[in-house]
Amino acid sequence: MTELMRTIAMPFRKRGKTVLMVSEFIFALSLDLGWFSPEQAKRVLQVAKEAGLVSVKGDEISPNFDATTVEIPLGFKPELSQLKEQPLFDRIIDLVMTTGVSRKEAIALVNEKQERIQLMIEVTALLVAKERGIDITHLADEVYKTLTITSSRPA
Q: Which of 35, 14, 6, 11 is nearest to 22 (CA)?
């Protein structure tokens, strides 16, 4: 599990819920746990949303993974510097991990497919995520942009 997944899971586990109000989530990260200021907690939520780890509908937030299965070490405290936006490949691997596989297993799935189809690694990772039933639409444009940038470079 990544530090971001642990950070996101903690408020849900602490409150024993699968859906929280955005304000409850911000309150849990800032005041309950004392990990961040309210502004920093909002930024963490934004990064998690961009990474596809949470869904926000109206004023409700829910994790896109089973927060009860996330291993959170005793004394865990996230570092804000570790919660910045991750590289595209890492964000896709995190999504694959939401299906119940470890990081090592997720990367192995991508590598296995990569050996067969020989595409850019981010494209292969997206295919693995899609095969595992993950909605990848929020990342498809981003991967496409990396394809057009890569393909326009001189040889």
A: 11
Residue pointed to by tokens 């990342």: 139
Domain at 8, CATH number: 1.10.10
CA 53 to chain centre: 4
Query: 100 and 138 share a domain?
Result: yes
* Together in a domain, 43 and 11: yes
Whole-angstrom CA distances from 29 to 34, 36, 47, 75, 118 are 6, 6, 14, 15, 42
CA–CA separation, 119 and 1 (whole Å): 26
* pTM score of the predicted model: 0.62
* Half-sphere exposure of residue 142: CA atoms within 13 angstroms, side-chain side: 16
Q: How confident is the model at residue 34 (pLDDT cuts 50, 70, 90)?
A: very high
